[in-house]
Design a protein that fits this description.
This protein has 9 helices and 14 strands. It has 300 residues and is α/β, with parallel strands linked by helices.
Length: 300
């Protein structure tokens, strides 16, 4: 197995340095591709001074899926892993990828994160949607066979959040399984900063509507899922207002953002579904543009 590890980053120099140290220790034979940008904290200089990074790609977009696709284009391995810039791999990480990728074309594992309330660990998540079994994965700790990424045409660059969940729906549509390896684990010793995927409630619901409509079309079950998510969030926000943790004005403003996000995502999802009628459902994928990188440093 020839492993490439793509690490997207944005203004995370110190966290990134710790992540690269872990890769050097536990996956020293992996090709490391850092996709940066556009950072303003000296990330470029730090990476260029290291001898354990094979490729540095500088991009002008702040969107995570653009960075992922730029990394896919730069990677040369037959297995490509994606690692969040603030996560450190455990000692068993590389071996778990090798073992897992023999059983499934995509493999993911647990993420241990330190939050204010304590440690949290992700677990396998599967949903049954429109006769499909969708297995979700954490986009910051996942490995693909490179031919599967070709089948997917990478990630959908329309999405500013939820790109990994969209890819999970599309993997199910084209018949690729997602495996779970408990030893493929990563951790963070500090509170996660959200990185370049942190977005507003409006974008959360825009992304949700877009990916559901794009992948499944206009169906009552899809509308119910969107309304169910929005209703649960509205009740939670109302409790915050009653407890004094939020203001009624803020609650109304958030509701307006949610409605606007749902409407925009619904419309754009219909357009995307019409533009790509194949099971891949990716009209904004890897093959659709060639100008992501503004600079590339290749030390291979």
């Amino acid at each position: 197995m020839e492993l490439s590890v793509v690490v997207p980053t944005l203004n995370g120099r110190d966290h990134l340095a710790a992540t690269l140290d872990g890769l050097a220790a536990y996956a020293p034979d992996a090709e490391v591709v850092v996709v940066n940008g556009p950072s303003a904290d000296g990330t470029t200089g730090m990476v260029r001074e290291r001898d354990d990074v094979d490729v540095l790609v500088e991009v002008s977009d702040r969107t995570l899926n653009v960075s992922r696709n730029a990394g896919i284009r730069a990677a040369s391995g037959d297995v490509v892993a994606f690692l969040r810039h603030d996560l450190a791999v455990e000692e068993t990480w590389r071996e778990a990828i090798e073992a897992g990728i023999e059983r499934a074309p995509v493999v993911t594992g647990p993420v241990h994160e330190t939050l204010p309330a304590g440690m949290t660990t992700t677990s396998p998540e599967t949903r049954r949607i429109r006769n499909r079994t969708v297995t979700y994965f954490n986009g910051g700790n996942v490995a693909f066979r490179s031919d599967v990424l070709d089948d997917l045409d990478g990630f959908d660059e329309y999405l500013e959040t939820g790109g990994a969940r969209d890819a999970a729906h599309r993997l199910a549509a084209i018949g690729h399984d997602v495996g779970w390896e408990s030893e493929l684990c990563v951790r963070t010793e500090f509170e996660a900063d959200g990185g370049i995927e942190e977005r507003s409630q409006g974008w959360k619901y825009r992304a949700l509507s877009y990916r559901l409509v794009k992948n499944y079309g206009v169906r009552p079950t899809i509308l119910r899922r969107i309304v169910s998510h929005a209703g649960a969030d509205a009740i939670s926000a109302a409790r915050d207002v009653l407890s004094g943790d939020a203001t009624p004005t803020g609650w109304v403003g958030t509701g307006r953002d949610v409605v606007s996000g749902v409407a925009t995502g619904w419309s754009d999802g219909l357009v995307a579904r019409a533009r790509d009628r194949s099971p891949t459902r990716n009209p904004h994928g890897c093959s659709k543009r060639a100008d992501r990188a503004v600079a590339k440093y290749d030390w291979r």
